[in-house]
Structures are given as C-alpha cells and as structure tokens.
UniProtKB/TrEMBL annotation:
Residues 22-71 form the Bacterial dipeptidyl-peptidase SH3 domain. Transmembrane segments: none annotated. Belongs to the peptidase C40 family. One of its GO terms (molecular function) is cysteine-type peptidase activity. InterPro entries: NLP_P60_dom (IPR000064), Papain-like_cys_pep_sf (IPR038765), Peptidase_C40 (IPR051202), SH3_16 (IPR041382). Residues 111-191 form the NlpC/P60 domain. It comes from Microcystis aeruginosa PCC 9717. Keywords: Hydrolase, Protease, Thiol protease. This is NLP/P60 protein. GO terms for biological process: proteolysis.
Length: 225
C-alpha cells in the first residue's frame, strides 16, 4: 500500500476544486456518487488501496472512494463544513424552486446514470438530492437513506415536494411528487424512461407508471436538513 502525503489541513477537511466522480470500491471502476465543485470531504485513510482512497463527504456523510489520479482536484478547506439547520417552514419556501429544478433537468437531454448527482445525467436519488441541495437542503445520498430521513405520511397527505418511495425487499427508488397524481423521477432503461420523466401514481396508464405503482413502498416529507 502507498501512503500519500497531503498538504496539512488544520480541520482535516478538503475542498473539491472541480466536479469529481467517486466510486464504490478501491478499484475505482463503478460509480457510487459524484461531488460538485465546492463540496468538502475528509479522508478516512491516506493509504491508497488498489487505485483509491476512502473519503467521507461532509454534507451528507457519504462514504466513497476517490481515485488517486484525482488528488489534484482537491485543496485544503479553509473552514470546516457547518450545517445550517433548517425547519420545515424554511424548506417549504423552496419547494416551488425544487420542482422547477427537476423540470428544467428533464428538459435537458439526459439519460439515467447510476451514481449520477450532477447535470445532466442523474440516478433517482441523485436527482432528488441535487434538487434539494441546490437550495441548501442536504438529504442523504441513497433512496433508502432518504426514506429513513423523511417523516412518513399517508398518500392522502401528499403535497407537491413530498417524496414517493418504491421498492421490493427495501426501498430502491425515489420520486418527487408534483401534485395532480404526477411525480418526476430519473429511472433506468430496462423498466423506466432511461432518464428524467413524469409518470402517474396509478396502475392503469403507461407501462412505466404501472411498473412503479406495483412497487409503491411509502411516502415521505422532508422536515429538516
């Protein structure tokens, strides 16, 4: 194993100075998530295992692997990341903008990308996280984590900006409720739209809406960040 030498950071935090791909293993082959320029991270270890170093993103505490070849994309963070607590009232003010973010993302040429959190290509939870994070509301990275993070609500309580979760043995997909029985989400090629699209919360329309309706898991509301 090779141990790298980094410019010391008094707060142990580093800044992404460009957009980064992050991986699910030290081989750095399969995308786990992406980090937008400006995000902060800390190193779990300075040992390069295979090709990568394990890091933790500060905003959502997500663990992933940074490819050693991308070390030139980080710099010392001058201040430690600090979360600014938000209430439900704070979040409600941004719901129209969050919905607009997803609709504008849909209007761009895009395709489904596993691990994608940066425009134009997202996975399901990446789109949701990006939409909220743009307005300072940090949700967990993965759909099952987002489901646990939200306050559970009944279908009858759904409001625009609430989240809809789908799954089999556990949650594995998430969408943003728009109102009027519609939701927007990024779904894969095999059973979805291969990108961002709007579907209906029903089983008697198109095949994609029907597929996900059969996998309805729960509904959630973001109450804090």
């Amino acid at each position: 194993m090779k141990i790298i030498s980094l410019t010391p950071s008094f707060n142990q935090e580093y800044l992404c100075i460009r957009d980064l791909n992050l991986y699910n293993s030290p081989s750095c082959q399969e995308l786990a998530t992406q980090a937008q320029q400006g995000r902060q991270l800390k190193f779990i270890s300075l040992e390069i295992t295979e090709k990568g170093l394990q890091i933790q993103l500060r905003e959502d505490n997500y663990l992933a692997w940074l490819c050693g070849e991308d070390l030139d994309a980080i710099a010392v963070a001058t201040t430690a990341y600090q979360k600014i607590p938000l209430t439900r009232s704070d979040i409600e003010k941004h719901i129209p903008e969050i919905i607009t973010f997803t609709q504008e993302a849909r209007n761009r040429t895009n395709h489904y990308l596993w691990g994608g959190t940066l425009a134009p290509n997202y996975d399901c939870s990446g789109l949701i996280q990006a939409a909220f994070a743009t307005f300072g509301i940090w949700l967990p990275r993965d759909s099952y984590q987002q489901e646990a993070f939200c306050q559970k609500i009944n279908r009858e309580e759904l409001l625009p900006g609430d989240l809809i979760f789908f799954g089999d043995k556990r949650v594995n997909h998430v969408a943003l409720y728009l109102g009027n029985n519609q939701y927007i989400h990024s779904s894969g090629k095999e059973t979805g739209n291969n990108g961002i699209a709007i579907n209906l919360l029903t089983d008697d329309r198109d095949s994609v809406s029907r597929h996900y309706y059969q996998k309805l898991w729960s509904f959630g509301r973001v109450m804090h960040n």
